[in-house]
Backbone:
């Protein structure tokens, strides 16, 4: 099955359409190499300065069976409004001017030093995208897990547990999740503030004088400073286009049998696809950590006769796929998730 992609841009798409100065595009491409979710995540401008308010249809009008000469009362649908907020992540990169100039290529040296800050922002974004929770960290945005973490929530219909697929029952904190997400303007997408710039912004502050805080008496030094800022959030317009699959992280193996406690991941992912109303509604992808992806590659050998797992050419490189849907690696997905209650 080939899943059609949405025409709305990802962060990587957007930056490639900028002016001839490719500094930001290069940065985003670098981030995408270590955080593959950026290759899929659609971003749209929020309708609020601090977030995005979505009107969700919560009830359909009931039709009436009418007899001849019988009247029909008018009806209407029911809706609810949900507001998703945007988090603001910033970093300052500073390098000693003398050290940078000794290199002979000041700009290249500064960028090499800045990469550590960018990787930190990248990892923090990916972690927040899946685990962020405004109820415990108000400065963050709420990610996927808090929205799919309770058996009393409506979204629990799209939560699959490994125990139903031959998997063992894990301890409370020895779990991990595979996510199936369909990105699109009417399903699930990233958001940025109304009237602001999309994605990561970079401002070269140039040469500045800073205080030496290493214990040398509070002296001064000349340095180059770069300011990075990333204002972003997550809007889930329709939870039916997201599926969470939680499994025991200690019981991952190449083959599931009736007694070894290893969950059949391919069967689980197949059921996840069937829970999605329409895989063609946007850009669909699976997300898992590297340990799970290694397991999937091994299960691929055992399941090749079913033709569900395969290697496709996506974006110029071979990508592990399931039923035509790419499987992306996200190291932010931990092996220590609490078991869903």
Residues:
């Amino acid at each position: 099955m080939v899943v059609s992609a949405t025409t709305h841009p990802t962060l990587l798409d957007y930056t490639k359409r900028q002016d001839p100065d490719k500094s930001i595009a290069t940065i985003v491409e670098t981030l995408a190499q270590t955080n593959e979710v950026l290759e899929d995540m659609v971003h749209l401008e929020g309708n609020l300065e601090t977030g995005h308010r979505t009107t969700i249809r919560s009830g359909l009008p009931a039709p009436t069976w009418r007899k001849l000469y019988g009247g029909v009362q008018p009806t209407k649908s029911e809706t609810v409004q949900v507001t998703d907020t945007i988090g603001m992540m910033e970093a300052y990169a500073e390098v000693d001017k003398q050290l940078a100039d000794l290199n002979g290529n000041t700009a290249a040296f500064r960028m090499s030093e800045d990469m550590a800050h960018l990787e930190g922002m990248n990892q923090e974004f990916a972690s927040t995208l899946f685990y962020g929770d405004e109820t415990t960290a108000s400065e963050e945005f709420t990610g996927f897990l808090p929205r799919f973490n309770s058996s009393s929530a409506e979204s629990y219909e799209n939560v699959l547990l490994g125990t139903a697929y031959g998997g063992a029952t894990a301890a409370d904190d020895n779990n991990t999740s595979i996510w199936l997400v369909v990105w699109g303007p009417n399903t699930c997408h990233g958001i940025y503030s109304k009237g602001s710039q999309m994605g990561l912004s970079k401002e070269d502050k140039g040469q500045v004088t800073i205080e030496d805080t290493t214990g040398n008496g509070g002296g001064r030094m000349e340095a180059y400073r770069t300011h990075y800022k990333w204002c972003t959030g997550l809007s889930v317009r329709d939870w039916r286009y997201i599926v969470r699959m939680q499994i025991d992280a200690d019981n991952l193996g190449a083959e599931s049998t009736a007694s070894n406690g290893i969950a059949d991941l391919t069967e689980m992912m197949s059921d996840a696809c069937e829970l999605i109303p329409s895989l063609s509604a946007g850009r669909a992808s699976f997300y898992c950590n590297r340990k799970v992806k290694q397991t999937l590659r091994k299960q691929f050998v055992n399941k090749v006769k079913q033709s569900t797992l395969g290697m496709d050419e996506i974006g110029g490189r071979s990508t592990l796929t399931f039923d035509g849907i790419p499987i992306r690696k996200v190291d932010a997905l931990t092996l220590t998730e609490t078991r869903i209650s």
